[in-house]
Amino acid sequence: MVYLLYLIQLIFYFLTVGLIVNFIYYRRIGALYLAAVYGSTSVLSFYLMDWRPLLVGFGIAWLLRILGYDPGLFGKKGFKKNKDG
After folding, report:
1. If exposure means fewest CB atoms within 10 Å of the residue's CB, which of 26, 52, 66, 85 is most exposed?
2. Residue 47, Cα to own-chain centre: how many angstroms?
């Protein structure tokens, strides 16, 4: 059971890193908010060795997405089309 907790904490950590990179590239403040939530709950869960901070962090992240702070699929710049399509 501990290894499952470590795996979920690692997933939250990778979400944090990915959202920070997304913030650096697209400058969307919602990505920074979500990175802060995922990162802080991952560290808190690791410190307490409990699954409840991860659940709270997931709930806060969904609340931020409902409020419109989702970084979205395309960001500000969007995907560039090539000449063929």
Report:
1. 85
2. 19
